[in-house]
Design goal:
Elements lengths: L1 H32 L14 H11 L6 E6 L6 E6 L5 E7 L4 E4 L4 H6 L11 E16 L8 E14 L7 E11 L4 E5 L5 E2 L14 E7 L3 E2 L9 E11 L5 E10 L1 H10 L16 E2 L18
Antiparallel strand pairs: 1-2, 2-3, 3-4, 5-6, 5-14, 6-10, 6-11, 7-8, 7-12, 9-10, 12-13
């Protein structure tokens, strides 16, 4: 009797693995046959398989592999076309509904499944923050209706060059993101943002020295204070090069601001189209706060 039970268990285990493997194969096939929104190479009937093949042709020496696995909530399959380091394209696939969503192009899915761009580095570091706040501001012009209150994020500090390289060209930028399941609202850095002094061949950024920077985002409409996004993120990106081929272009700061957003929402006046623009708008959160006080915040750049 015991031998029979063992045989049955082995048989059911084998069948379970076989079914799962078939589902994984189906998820990959559904993904490969799906057509992206928009055109690839100007061809309207291009599929994600066409796109993957084009990536593989760019570097024939790099090996990419198709793989599929169940999502952590067991609702979908995650299909990967990636190299040995996990870099590549990723999709969320519903094999029953034949719905395919590219994770790389979706801010919400990128964070839901842990494919975010930032994971720390040892080349550049943000230090000496003198200002780090979310506030309401009045902004005029192209980006906002005239004299309408909007939400901005301001950060001011320094970046230390921890490499042994003299940087001869560098720019810094940042942005506030309100990430909802179906939409992301971006407040990108405005024209005032950047390094305090320009970095050039005649004014290089030497190793183990710092450069001051200031970032202020363009305003996000106050109407969004009526909502709680899935994620609220502020990131700082650095692009740096030297004359002989060194290149760095990554996020060096990523702050999780969801709790700050909730606090700001509670302390800010409700949105009103008829607001008196002569009134002082005062809700300023955590002024001159140390960056390390943010939960899940990291101030190093990725490798």
């Amino acid at each position: 009797m015991t031998k029979i039970l063992i045989c049955l268990l082995i048989m059911f285990s084998f069948l379970g693995c076989h079914i799962l493997n078939n589902d994984e194969k189906e998820a990959i096939e559904v993904c490969q046959k799906a057509k992206p929104e928009g055109l690839i190479f100007g061809i309207s009937n291009s599929t994600w398989l066409d796109y993957a093949n084009s990536i593989a042709k760019e570097d024939p020496n790099k090996k990419y592999v198709w793989q599929a696995k169940k999502s952590f909530d067991n609702k979908y399959f995650i299909v990967d076309f990636a190299d040995s380091n996990g870099w590549g394209q990723h999709w969320e696939v519903d094999i029953e509904q034949k719905i395919v969503k590219n994770i790389n192009q979706n801010e919400y899915l990128t964070r839901k499944y842990g494919y975010r761009r930032f994971d720390g580095n040892d080349e550049f570091e943000v230090i000496n923050l003198k200002q780090n706040e979310m506030k309401t501001d009045f902004q005029n012009g192209y980006w906002n209706n005239e004299n309408m209150p909007s939400i901005v994020y301001i950060i001011k500090g320094s970046v230390i060059n921890k490499t042994n390289i003299s940087i001869t060209n560098a720019t810094i930028s940042g942005g506030l993101k309100l990430i909802f399941k179906e939409k992301t609202i971006n407040g990108n850095a405005n024209y005032e943002s950047g390094f305090k002094s320009q970095i050039t061949i005649n004014n290089p950024w030497e190793p183990n020295t710092t450069r001051e920077f200031f970032i202020k985002t363009r305003g996000i409409d106050k109407i969004y204070l009526g909502y709680i996004p899935e994620y609220v993120i502020f990131n700082v990106s650095l692009k740096a090069t030297d004359p002989i081929g060194y290149s760095f272009y990554k996020d060096i700061v990523e702050l999780d601001l969801k709790e700050k957003w909730k606090s700001f929402k509670l302390t800010s006046a409700p949105y009103s189209p008829n607001i008196n623009t002569n009134e002082n708008v005062t809700p300023i959160i955590e002024k001159n706060e140390d960056i390390n006080k943010h939960e899940d915040s990291t101030i190093n750049s990725e490798n």
